[in-house]
Amino acid sequence: MLLVLSLGGMATGILWPEVGLLVTPWTVQLLMAQLFLGFLGVDFRTLARLRPADTLEVGLISAVKLIVLPGLLWAITAWLAPELALSVLLLSGVSTGVTAPFIATILDANPNRMLQVTVLTSILVPLTLPGLVSLLMGRHLEIPYSHMARLLALILLPPGILVFLLKQYTPRLVLHMERLAAPLGLALFFFTTLAVIAPFAGQFTGSGSGIMLSVGLASLLAVVFAACGLGMSCLWPRRLDGLSAALGLTCINNVLVAVFAARFFGSDPTLLAVVYMFPFFLILLPMRWMAKRLKP
Questions:
Q1: Domain that holds residue 64
Q2: Whether 95 contacts 66, CB under 8 Å
Q3: Which terminus of the chain has a smaller tally of CB atoms within 10 A, N or C?
């Protein structure tokens, strides 16, 4: 359903941009509402319950997700195709998506581990992603670090804090809200994609090759993310669950990147973030199969 709505929102924004432009001014608010619904299923106290043996695993996955992998992919892309380096950096450096714990239960991965990685990377990404952009692309951009960090913090922190307070003081209300989270979240996903794409509709309609390039690059990145996670388990088989590591690197908050990129960086990184949804869903089953093959 997410795949259909992503395609529908993108198509509507490209074919009828005047419709999308009506909701474009509310892009940040739409994403905040979407994240609020996603955070309803997240227990933010999970980090406080980390066992010492698990801390290293969560820290390693998070460090690879936010620092190591985006840095390496940026360096390779800057060497081979410099015009794509920023797009790759943004998509690879964002936090793990709030749907990761749910998908982990479907794939027989570790949902608690995904919950911990999601919480930690969501807290850190307002600092790490603008920092990487400023450090690696600072010579080519004139956007201050503080502006980028402020936008990401504005999008991520208020919904997370509100959900935390509601769970503390009105847990019954949260239970009722969770029942509405799925249908409301799907509608918000459609309108957020529509709002992000509409301002760039003119560039997309005249560039079918650009869309195909974005789909191809997104597919390649999804394979690389999954392979890195599975590879981490080969290096440390007794401590790291390969499927959980692969899911933590592959299931990303691509809509956050789309909104962030649309605000600061233009159409190319925005389109890459939107179309990433397609290869992500396609790679889940092969990723699960490969993880079982790699288990000792």
A1: 32-166+203-294
A2: yes
A3: C
Tell me whether residue 25 is in a domain.
no
pTM score above 0.70: yes
Q: How much is the average pLDDT of 204-226?
A: 83
pLDDT at 48: 67
Q: How far apart are CA 74 and CA 77, in angstroms?
A: 5
In the structure, what pLDDT confidence band is assigned to residue 119 with cuts at 50, 70 and 90?
confident
Highest mean pLDDT among 99-103, 172-176, 179-183, 215-219 belongs to 215-219
- For residues 252-257, give the mean pLDDT: 87
Domain of 103, CATH number, reads: 1.20.1530.20
144-160 pLDDT, tens digit each = 778 888 888 888 889 88
The answer to whether position 260 is within a domain reads yes
Q: Is residue 263 part of a domain?
A: yes
